[in-house]
Amino acid sequence: xxxxxxxxxxxxxxxxxxxxxxxxxxxxxxxxxxxxxxxxxxxxxxxxxxxxxxxxxxxxxxxxxxxxxxxxxxxxxxxxxxxxxxxxxxxxxxxxxxxxxxxxxxxxxxxxxxxxxxxxxxxxxxxxxxxxxxxxxxxxxxxxxxxxxxxxxxxxxxxxxxxxxxxxxxxxxxxxxxxxxxxxxxxxxxxxxxxxxxxxxxxxxxxxxxxxxxxxxxxxxxxxxxxxxxxxxxxxxxxxxxxxxxxxxxxxxxxxxxxxxxxx
Length: 264
Known about the structure:
By secondary structure, this protein is mostly helical. The chain has one domain (4-258): Ferritin, core subunit, four-helix bundle (Ferritin), CATH 1.20.1260. Helix content is 66%, strand content 0%. This is Phenylacetate-CoA oxygenase subunit PaaI.
């Protein structure tokens, strides 16, 4: 980094990376005890723990860049300061974890699979980043991400080629996720500076890689490909969010806010 604008772009990128994993891991943790079977309960919990660890790596880098303590960055920011994609904060379904949860497993599979494909592509770019601490973190995360992607791809392919009911639910979930997955694929207002500094590849290049991968899987499983995904409910990279994020952060920060000695 040689200029304030490059540092600012790097900080924006790190917030996106951290917040994406942090919020989606939280939504995944709400499935504890509710997954389709005990083996999946254990596997999903392990994936969520890994993702929280990935978020922590990015928050630690932000701490090193002067953004404050990692724990405070994660737990005490206002919702408008978060840079996660809106889709990732969406609730799992009707009800809450403690009161009549009626969560949608098809939505969980599609959201996590699409995100895992993108995360793998993004990490492959980040491992060549000119900011070496970020490149090192990406290389470390990739060793776990390989298995996360394999897990969700297996679920996705099995369900979209299963019973009529499974296919119907998966098609509905794909349509739902497609409406907002464009928010995951964008790098936000500072993306040109991120690319210029060689922190990450151009967002259009990353998007095309994701679409090519997803289209191939759709063709393999007989699904119609709908073109470029949309971003209907706001751009989280600009701090635009839904009440779902406010609810999630209130729960996530509850313990830390009352006992700041609690850490990762």
